[in-house]
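Structure request: Amidase, Kushneria indalinina DSM 14324.
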Amino acid sequence: MIHHGAGADLPGEIVGWDASRLSEAIHAREVSCREVMRAYLGHIDRCNPRVNAIVSRRDDDVLLREADQCDLELQQGKSRGWLHGIPQAIKDLTDAKGLPTSMGSPLLAGQIAERDSLMAGRMRQAGALFIGKTNTPEFGLGSHTFNEVFGVTCNPWQPALSAGGSSGGAAAALACRMLPVADGSDMMGSLRNPAAFNNVFGLRPSFGRVPVLSTGDNFGQQLSTAGPMARSVADLARLLSLQAGPHPSVPLSIAEDPGLLLPPFDAPPAGARIGWIGDWQGYLAMEEGIVPLCEKALGVFQALGCEVEHVTPEMDPDSLWSSWQVLRQWSVAGNLASIWQDDSRRDALKPEACWEIERGVALSAMQVLEANRIRSRWYACLIKLFEYFDYLALPSAQVFPFPVAQRWPTEIDGRSMDTYHRWMEVVIPGSLSGCPVISLPAGFGPMGLPMGIQLIGRHRAERAMLALASAYEAAASEWINALPDAFKKDGPC
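Returned structure:
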């Protein structure tokens, strides 16, 4: 057992624990919240300059006083919850009271949130101490985390490469052990692509599982959702349980007890069927090495007793892309058109945002209706597939991490990408489905770069999905527990 003042190795050990182990140690009084905060702040000082994942860092003295208050409460027999005294950094698209919400935009730089978002509030209520924010691309657009406010977030495995996005800061911070668990959000793979690029877990929850308070439309699009990222499935489940739960102001939120998502998990039933979509019979361009790596990961499921079969959905994948473009442009324009229409602010938007808005404001109601009809046909197709399969599998990304100086991949395997996000088309089936989608570490490719495999499950079937992921985690520990070279060669960063 580790006790207060237990030697020079303690800080490094603290940041190596996952959130579940850290919570146990805090509540058992093996370590103090002050020791935890000091360990994390020191580690961030060493590590963050290398990757630039955590931004808007709060003052150390203030954070240590907050940690002292958490220690005092424990002395009095009080705990705020699972995250009591645990450092967290909220994705910079989400409000956390007293912290800036820049969304990576010079137009919003320095804007201080007056209240917590619903998700941040639930995490704070459970005891999280917010040390800052995690970096994100401007307005979350694009799966590469760079912006003109804070710069680019680098990949912990090879810092010259991208950490993905838009939850790239969160994923890189997790991989570097600067956070024990992290929140993120996902519209177009933003919990899955960075999870794959950083060898961590990311879970896009079912439509309505994690409610978001809106000042606008509570009934439309529902393309984006908040969700958890973690280095272990148990942490993933525990953070999801905190984030989830109905709210009266969010009429489409799922009215189920979020405690049902908590571990421990029973062993998944033998014979679970996984349909391997892969590259959709060549429709999806894939960088060399990705498909074989994911098929190796599927072999882990087979060793667990799952049945894996190739499947091609009876749906034109290009129609899904057409639907997605319309619904995404409608969403982006709905959020940002007022900025774009202001001549004094338009030039501050990055070109990709302007491209989305220009097309979004030109859409007709009938185009949006048709896009939703296509989406509905896709869900009907999935329902039919789920009569036989328990899960559908695809790679989490179509490329391995690419150079940070590249705005986005313009070509994959000799095929040109016609938009700034076409290279992430593989996430569209999951995003449009409204079903839970988990990204699991799939191992490392020929150049030593991480990749993930995503599983799409039935709507609201998160617990069964987490149980299967937990079994996979135990069987694939060889690569799931790997550390970036910086940790192995030079110590932490």
